[in-house]
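lol ok so funny story. i was supposed to be doing the assay writeup but got distracted and ended up predicting the structure for this chain instead. priorities right. anyway since i did it might as well share w the group, maybe its usefull for someone
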Amino acid sequence: MAEAHWYVVHTYSGYENKVKVDIEKTIENRNLQDQILEVSVPMQSVVEVKNGVEKKADKKMFPGYVLINMVMNDDTWYVVRNTRGVTGFVGPGSKPVPLTEEEMASLGFESPDVQIGLEVGDMIVVTAGAWKDTVGAIKSINEAKKTITINVEMFGRETPVELSFTEVKKM
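and the output, tada:
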């Protein structure tokens, strides 16, 4: 299977978050989780001073652009390119150019290698988030997204929940 890279997608200004949500819905509907791994609108915290009052706010680092970590093929290109609000990939003509590791590191997207020491079937306890203190058995591990899936009983039935490696610990 081909390797995933980060690509830059140009969008209508102000539509970055809508494009992110629409692409994520399409990923789920078409079952492309293994090909489009992450959609990101890079934000940075800034302190604004208005009328003498300091206020923290999140500003888009690149208005009009969305970053996507994906395996480039005809299907993924078509899904992203035909999302409402997307004007195209950044690159010459219709050929998207992936960002280099150095470019991603300068944006703060360094991907540290996480060694989790967990296997399918291991019992874990959730240490953070909405499912804190929940205990479950690992059903699947996604190394690319750095997540695990456990089943949680909700409303009398088993429901799969995806958790980050950093939110769990082995029992």
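The mean pLDDT is 84. Residues 147 and 163 are 5 Å apart (CA to CA).
back to the writeup now i swear
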